[in-house]
Amino acid sequence: MNTFIEKKVWLYIVLAFAFSVGVRLIWIYQFHGVENFMWNNQFMINTNDGYYWAEGARDILNWDFQKFAFSPVFSDTAWVTAFFAYVLPFSFESVILYLPVFLSSLVVIPMVLIAQNFKKAELGLVAALVASIAWSYYNRTMVGYYDTDMLNIVFPLFLLWSLVLAFRTREEKYLIFTAFEIILYRSWYPQSYSLEFAFFGLILLYTLVYERKNLYMYKLMAIMLFAMMGLPGVVRFFIVIGVYVLYKRKKLDSYMYHTLAAAFLLFLATGGFAPIWGQLKGYVFGSSIESVGDDLKLHFFSVMQTVREAGKIPFETFANRISGHTVTFLLSCVGYAMMSYRYRVMLLGLPLVGLGFLAYVGGLRFTIYAVPVMAFGIAYLIFFISDFIKNKNLKIAFISICTLGVLYPNILHVVAYKVPTVFTKQEVAVLDKLKKVASRDDYVVAWWDYGYPIRYYSDVNTLIDGGKHGGAVNFPVSFMLTSPQNVSAKLARFDVEYTEKQFLMKKDDGDRNRSNIANMTLDSGFKDTNDFLASLHVEAKLPKKTRDIYLYLPYRMMGILPTVARFSDIDLMSGKQNRRLFFYQTNRFKDSKTLLNLGSGVIFNKQAGTIKIGNQEVKVKEFLITSYDKNKKLIRQRQTLHKDANFYLVYMKSYNTFLVLDEEMLNSTYIQLFVFENYDKKLFEPVVLDPNAKVFKLKI
Question: Are 487 and 575 contained in the same domain?
């Protein structure tokens, strides 16, 4: 590459990088001055999972590697963050806020370099501009979206770049580049297994069909398999270094088929297809019920059925997330097909396309993978059509207008996508108060959505979080939040102590392979978990107390309370729906003289004291009102309507929110403690009573 071309390529990379960064800073401009989104004089991040990596980076900087802690102190994301926080003259909050902006924008480098290998650097510039801000890529790499996604597409694009150049040049250096990229990608994102294997499978198919006698292709596949083995990254690093040295010295040329066979056997022996099948089973073939255990077979509700990113999406959403608009998406598909016909090596992008298209049946999170390849497609189509324009100025104008046309809907999305921070300043203030009274060994009972932020801001333990939220661990927490206080308190003590007990068990201990609820059942002398749960309503022998437990009850959880309840709304022995709790919340209503329309077919008849729910009409037992005075003290009022009824209407005046719920939900721990601050003084004591979130300490 001559000096002029090299300078032009790097100029395009810098332009695309600056554009990507600049567009992401729109969010900062939009929320400038919104104090409610700031903590320690900086904006907070806007993804729950980010607090997981932030916790790890914080502990690394404090050189705190506590045994049995949930902090990811050995993850690459935490170490990279800790490095930047250590060397840069910015606050830790600023580093985690802006890191995704700059790391995710690195995706433009391999895109321009791939296009330059085809002598079409300008095409690479257009593709990089589009890919860097396309809907799904922007959504998961915007400012504040501090997560592994900030490099999850950068790594496979560099892998695609090394494979493209390996195919086109057959130079040995691209063998080691490919291997290193696989090792780094796996280290950063262990779930990269499936994509790596898809690249390998495509190369294997190509070799068997077109180049069965090409030694270089066998070298490429063998070193990829060595890099993909299920061994620690350091071990794989030295293995591929050794293999590459043998390649350079021509020591394996006569034994290449044997080397490939050995690599494949080692690949199988160290993990093989197990992680791939696990991901497919979770996202594509996921069941709503998961069974756990052998000696006590229990059934739990599967979390995958409630995760939005694992759900099916409409075609328009699918197309928009990949290319910004349905028309752009369809044209991108045409362009990619044409580009692959012209440059067959671009078929190596099919694993990314395939994984991205899997989103149509397996969940919107996958669309991000197809973004860069489809960006190549639309860019190629623009330049292909422009070749028919002979006038240079008209050609430049055509390319510019088309590029702006493709970018326009994506930029509109960026402007409209005003994602708030995970927590507000007031909510974090509650967690900060909790940090001052709780110790690091204590546990906070809360739903898994809030696990990571709680651990980060309060520096405590949680039972469930964004990574630990299977049906078996969700059930006890769900049961605590939706059961009466006496049951909730006892189960909380059981679950915390059994969680700690499991850390100390040996790997071959059979109890370690059971869920906590199964061990509680068997240790309490029951063979049916329903009997164990029933025993919590009366006197139950509790485990010895080793630490304090707190309940974190935020107002924002009310919106997902029906989902929370589903995890314990199940007979663990049979897997059938069990309790059928009723809860409805709304802040959109129309009040008239005789009727209160609460929306969604729910109407309260003031004169009759009844509520119509769809086609069913039920009596209301009590109408309850809560409000806060100027000193933030809760005031409660109640009016009895029908003593023989089972439904309640609650008006939370200070929140402008109505609740419709049955008696069992009304008596749940969450409703009694958060909505009414009606706590059993023998079981709980208040720590923080804030309208945004309330914290209670367990006394048993």
Answer: yes
